[in-house]
Amino acid sequence: MASTPTIGANWRRISVPSSGVGRRLDKFLQDHFVNLSRNLIFKWLRERRIKVDGVGIMQPNYRLTHQDYEITIPRATAVYVRPPRPQGPKSENVISSWMLYDDDHIMAFNKPPDIAVQGGDGIDISIDKLVRQLDCVETPRLVHRLDQDCSGLIVLAKTLDAASHLSAQFKNREVKKSYLAVVEGQPHRHASKTWISTVSTVVKAKSREGFERMVPVSRLEGTKHVALDGESPRMCETRWRYVSREGTSFLLELFPRTGRKHQLRSMCAFDIGSPIVGDNKYDGASCARLMLHSFSMTFKHPDPKLGHFAIHAPYFRKYGQLAEFKY
Q: What one GO molecular function would you report for this record (predicted)?
């Protein structure tokens, strides 16, 4: 049975598909609803507001043992149903087709959107699994992360020494990274194509609807968010510039100087007032994918002879229904 939810005045109902049998209740809900946070799920469980076939459940590790179970959860504003993920590729030829660079020390790929970098519960296809199919002396190692919904450049180390070398650079913020993002609406201070530096102090906060976001401390009250207990504010710095526009959509280049969670997504939504298209978590315009692309990276190559090394990942000029942008 298709897992299509029905929405009532106060409740959402969903039938469990065959792919959900055997999964934990909390993991199933997180995977199915884009903006349903783990904390909100746990809160609802404590209050017995999540029901399976009419019975209130309190245990997050409750296993769904039968297909067509009916799960009922409270209705919450802006909970988006995650569209079915396409069946992922499983052949060596596909991962090889994404390859941008390969030598004895590192390899780089242009990751499509909706492909996870690291495997986990409920994730069938991921970069770390696919690279095991390649003919390498050692299993390539991840040295940085990239959101599943984000496309673009991902670099892996092919030896332990290379992994240590690159990991230290990421930890010390010595790697220069740039991203491309399509945003909806005119960004503040967008008039020139010169670089603009945006600095803000963000904290993990919860909205009145129960959704967690990284929000600038100065905007907490105005955005109706409350900082989570025990969360320390963190400074974020991003340089960005306006590149081009098509109607009400703008292409921006983003250069993060720090590496906070959701730094670019939060900055676009709160600091420049133009959420990234497809970013449901930060109220972006509706789209089939998140319009954020990891575009380039510069670092010291593990081979000293190669010195500072730069890699670029070509971006997809067609952004869903948006027209082509010139870059």
A: pseudouridine synthase activity
